[in-house]
Fold this sequence. Notes:
The protein has helices at residues 2-94, 103-131, 144-161, 181-197, 233-236, 257-267, and strands at 140-143, 165-170, 176-179, 204-211, 217-223, 274-277, 281-284. It is α+β, with helices and mostly antiparallel strands. Strand 6 (274-277) and strand 7 form a beta hairpin.
Amino acid sequence: MIQARRLGRTGLTESYCSQLILQLERRRRDYAALRAKEEAERAARLAAEAFAANQARLAAQAADRAKSNFLATMSHELRTPLNAIIGFSEVIYRDDLLPRERYPEYAKHIHEAGIHLLDIVNEILDLARIDAGRVELDEELLPIIDVMHASMETILPLAIDKSLTLNCQSELRDRLVYVDPTKMRQVLINLLGNAVKFTEEGGRVSLTAFLGGGDELVISVMDTGTGIPSEDIDRVLRPFEQAENPFSRRNKGTGLGLSIARALVKLHGGELMLESEFGRGTTVS
Length: 285
């Protein structure tokens, strides 16, 4: 009887130890799983922080490049008209270098350079006012075709100089729209100006208006110009960005036209969309 009692105690002890070992093993596995989860979360957090830091670095580098390109562009754009103004006015001031009968020609060059300089300054100030939220719309009801024709007339001399074909048509001749006519003309002149600038001699530029699928007004500027590489489309919509290299580009400009047009369209509750194929032309709607 005594021997049986001892064996029973031994069995109970072994059973208890076995259960204890199982619980300890279960806790060890749970602890290991918890540690693995924490390590995975930490690794994911570090990866997300590294990705965010890398994105911030890339954004800062892009901003620096844009700033450098802008300064290079502005250096050229400002110096060109200023050199003309200073040079021709100096000739008139000294009065003994060239015959006076050429003064009207010099005055014309000074005037053109001054207008160009004023356009540059106005573009920069317009963008600054838009960014500061200080631009308000003075909207009124008017036929959209009137705004289109006024914009076309402004750009017509530039198109004639390049022997371009201009086309303006609308399905909505009697349709009234509620817009700020000055701001909308500014949008269309910017877009038409770009189209004319980047279209080779003998090309076409079209301005059309029609109703889209959701009965919304769509105004479209289409050209047969040089087009924009697909990888540059998003970039040219940002301020101070241009598809051309600022150090080797053939066309003058600040690179602000599309940004200003996009912001003014957004103020009207619209959206500016750009489609382009390199070498085949561009459509901005």
